[in-house]
Fold this sequence. Notes:
By secondary structure, the protein is mainly alpha-helical. The protein is built from ten helices and three strands, in the order H-H-H-H-H-H-H-H-E-E-E-H-H.
Amino acid sequence: MPRNYQRKTERGKWSQELLETAIKQVRKGASIRAVSKSTGIPFSSLQERVQKGVFSEPSLGQSPVFSRQQEEEIANHLKVLANMFYGLSPPDLCRAAYEFAERNGIKHNFNKDSCMAGRDWLNGFLQRNPTISVRKPEATSMSRVKGFNRTEMGIFFSNLGEVMDKYNFSPVNIYNIDETGIGTVQEPGNMAPKGQKRVGSVTSWERGKNITIICAMNAAGTFVPPMFIFPRANESNTGKRWTTWGILLLLKKRLDQ
C-alpha cells in the first residue's frame, strides 16, 4: 500500500463502540438487518460478529505479514535487547523481520535481494506497536554496562545504607557528582545556497578536543561551582592522571573555601 494512501470510500468507518451498541440491540431482540441500516454497519459484518460474539474493529486491505502474537514477540524481544544495551536500528529490525519470516515459513512479500523487510512494514509495525519507537541511544562504555547489574547495585546500596545509619548525614552533606564532556569546536550551521559546491563555517578549531566538566549538588540544593578538566599537552612528563579520589579532594578544597 502506498505510504500516502487516501481513502476513496466510506467502508469500514464504523467504530468498535458502535459495533458493541449494535450487538447489544440485536441481543435485546432487534433484527440484524434493521440494526444494520440504522448504524451503517454492513449486514454480513454485523451478522458474523453477532454469531461469533466478536467485538473487533473492521479490517480493510492486506493483512499484516505477522500475527498480533508474533508482532508482540518481536516487540518484547526489542525491549529486552534495548534493556541489555544492544538495541536494534531500523535496518537491523527489517533484517530480523525477514529472517524471522523465513525461519518460521511465514508467507511474506519482503525484498529477497536485500533480505530485508520494507519501509512500509516498518512504519506499520511501529503504528501497531506504540510501545516501540525509534530513539537515538546514548553511547555507554562496556565497563559501565558490566558494572550496572543487580549484584553491583545491591552492594552499593547496602554499603550506602550502612554508612547512612552509622554517621546519619544531613542533606547538606550528601552530594551527587556527575561528569560530562563538551567539545571545543562549535556546531556549524547547515544553511547554504543551493548548488554551491564548497560550504564552510568559521569555528575555533577544525578538530577539537573534549573538556570534562564535573558538577556536584547536595540534597539541600547547594551546588559547587563546576570544575573544568582540560587535556594536558604532554601526559608523559607529569605521569599523573585524574582519578575519582583526586577529583573528590579538589571538590572538598572548594567546599572548605
